[in-house]
Amino acid sequence: MTGFYSSPLAAPDPAAVTRPSVTDARLYLCTNARAEQGDFADFVRAAYAGGVDIIQLRDKALQAAEELELLAVLSEVAAEHGKLWAVNDRADIAALSGAPVFHIGQQDLPVAAARTLLPAGTAVGLSSHTQEQVRAAAGAGTTDRSGNGGAQARAEAGGAQAPAEAGGAVDYFCVGPVWATPTKPGRAAVGLELLRYAASLHTRVPWFAIGGIDLANIEQVVAAGAQRVVVVRAITEASDPTSAAQALRAALGQGTSAGSDGVTAGAADQTGLGGQGVTA
């Protein structure tokens, strides 16, 4: 395999790698189908090689058949590297493709409804843009500094997608956009303060900062309390996606122990969502 790699690399043996949980993920990439470049398989392979944990195919221009074809490629490459991949918006496509991760927005299919269409074990993620939405997504995994837990979070959620008692809880959520981004035109930036708020909740539910994040500003994101990020252009527009991913991964630091989630990584919790620990 050449492509973006500086030298040919053999694909990892799938039997020798273990697919991580969403909890283990630090670096999440959203990409389109790269129709102009015509290098989708090479690109996602290069991104995974650089340390990306999850790749989401997000391309509104794709027909269902085209998306399923590309997802088959993404699934194969992800398996080579022992990594995760995600489908955006469409639960039917996620179910048909066998996606391990499914992501929705606040105005999309409700989480509980999506779970009725998805195979058991599919991780479901949700975008959040306000304090109320963040608290709702954090759900029963939340204990903030006042001692309030998930029940009050749901009561305060208002119009947000509050996790339902049966099937509505999310497996991860995204907080942003931190900065304005052309990938979400018309969506106002939330700034770093919403990241600080999310970090203050000490939730067991993994969360990712998203929106305009790149190597020039990722240190600000980490300083605000985020341990996980979603990026787009920082890797999709890089001349060397592997090196770009490696640099972002290095900027995130090592591990998730007793960090901004307020949890100790690797300790089993009661939800079975991949080994989150308890509030530190």
Itemize the secondary structure elements and their pairings:
Elements: E1 27-31, H1 40-49, E2 54-57, H2 64-81, E3 84-88, H3 91-97, E4 101-104, H4 111-117, E5 123-128, H5 131-138, H6 150-156, E6 172-175, H7 193-200, E7 207-210, H8 218-223, E8 229-231, H9 233-236, H10 241-252
Parallel strand pairs: 1-2, 1-8, 2-3, 3-4, 4-5, 5-6, 6-7, 7-8
Helix pairs in contact: 1-2, 1-10, 5-6
Enzyme class: transferase
EC number: 2.5.1.3
Binding site for Mg(2+): 89, 108
Apparent shape = globular
Corresponding CATH superfamily: Aldolase class I
End-to-end gap: 44 Å
Helix content: 25-40%
Integer count of domains: 1
- If strands are numbered along the chain, what order do they take across the biggest sheet? 1-2-3-4-5-6-7-8
CATH top level label: Alpha Beta
Q: Under CATH, the topology is which? A: TIM Barrel
Tell how many strands the DSSP assignment holds.
Answer: 8
Instruction: Count helical runs.
Output: 10
Summarize model confidence as the mean pLDDT.
Answer: 82
Portion of residues in beta strands equals: 5-15%
The helix/strand class is: alpha/beta
Q: Element order, helices and strands?
A: EHEHEHEHEHHEHEHEHH
CATH architecture classification? Alpha-Beta Barrel
Largest sheet, strands/sense/barrel? 8 strands, parallel, barrel
